[in-house]
Amino acid sequence: MAIVNVEIAENSSKLNLSVSEESPSELNLSVFEETTTVVVQVVENQIVDWTSTSIDGGSPESANLIQVRRGTASNWASVNPILTEGEVGVETDGIGTGNVKEKIGDGVKDWNSLPYKSSGGSDDAYSKVAEVDIGGVRDGDTVESTVKEALDQLLSAPFKSLTYSYSINYSLVEKGLSVTPTSTWNIAPNDDTVTDVSILRNNIEESNQGTALSGSYLHLDSIDFSSSTSERTYKIDITSTDAGLNSTPRSVAFVAPTYAGVLAIANVDETNIKTITKYVRSRATQNNISFSPVLQRYIYAYPKSFGLLSSIKDPSNFEVIGTFDVSEITFTLADGTSEIMYIYVSNADTTQTNFLQDFIF
Question: pTM of whole model > 0.85?
Fold first, then answer.
């Protein structure tokens, strides 16, 4: 650093100062009615600090040229001076680009603490911490640039968040059976970065998959209806740089089967009902079940826990529940446990082909 102290005589009008032969820096000051002492600090051939004992007075018409205090952004940040009140500092990086940044001192704050000057123009400096994701700016990002640059950032391609899918190969299982589920996942990080993938059962990590973006994992233990709800709950935890923790649970439910078909009235019992079409389904209306009886009865059987039907409709949407009788039969399931079933049986033999009916809860 070089410090030059120059006293200017009362009638002088201009001071020319060269910092070095390789990189001349000229400071031209108009001097008015009193002696002025100027202190110039030079860093790496850049004038980054100067003070004057007298900067007021005189007539603007008598001024020849004033070059304000200036330097590169990195030099300003490194020296970090305190500008006097009203003193202007310019970052030379933007000269010639239309994006010149400047600060005005208050005599208190150092350079790094001062805001950039703003006059409402499109090239004024701007600084704001984003509170939401918008355009190319993420929640929590600091936009610190000119308004033009900030708009460029906002209008750039938006940040694309991580997406993924996770499933297990069972969701509804026939009560009485046991199964061992497999977890399958596929992750598209997009603009995010995956840092950890874990597969859990009963909220306990069963397998850490590192940063694998896709894969399948066969769980260690089989489950059945006697397993607790938590033991039948599986989950993937995906940790990423931007989104943090993504967690999706999947669970397995068990239900006794539903049966639909036709039988002779003499054959309506557990053994024969188990030979007609079987469905593993939760309690819900079942539409368009096709029946083709030949002097037989329509049969619809399901777990009593579902409750009674509210309606049965034929293909013409006529209500026909009154043509069915309902009874209860206890079935033995595959594991030897029992389940009480409601059995709906039409009350007359009939012959039809692909006769559709809706069974409504």
Answer: no
Task: Decide: helix, strand or coil at residue 256.
Answer: coil
Find tokens 């009916």 and name the residue. 357
Q: How many helices (H) and strands (E) does the chain have?
A: 3, 25
Which residues contact residue 299 at a Cβ distance below 8 angstroms, ignoring those fewer than 6 apart?
A: 259, 260, 261, 262, 263, 268, 273, 276, 343, 344, 345
* Tokens at 117, concatenated: 């000057």
In this structure, what token pair is assigned to residue 49? 């600090």
- Is 304 strand, coil or helix? helix
Counted residue by residue, the chain has a size of 361
**CA-to-CA distance for 92 and 73, rounded, in angstroms?**
7
Residue from 276, 305, 307, 275 nearest 289 by CA: 276
Domains and CATH numbers, the chain: 2-120 (no CATH), 121-159 (no CATH), 163-254 (2.60.40.10), 256-360 (no CATH)
**Chain segment 217-265, per-residue pLDDT in tens:** 999 999 999 999 889 999 999 999 988 898 899 999 999 999 999 999 9
| C-beta separation of 162 from 245 below 8 A | no
DSSP 38-100: EEEEEETTEEEEEEES----S-GGG------EEE-HHHHHHH--BPPTT-EEEEGGGTTTT--
Least confidently predicted of 3-17, 63-77, 149-163, 347-361: 3-17
Per the DSSP assignment, residues forming a β-bridge with 338 are 332
Residue at token pair 């826990």: 305
Alpha helices by DSSP H, the chain:
73-79, 147-154, 270-273
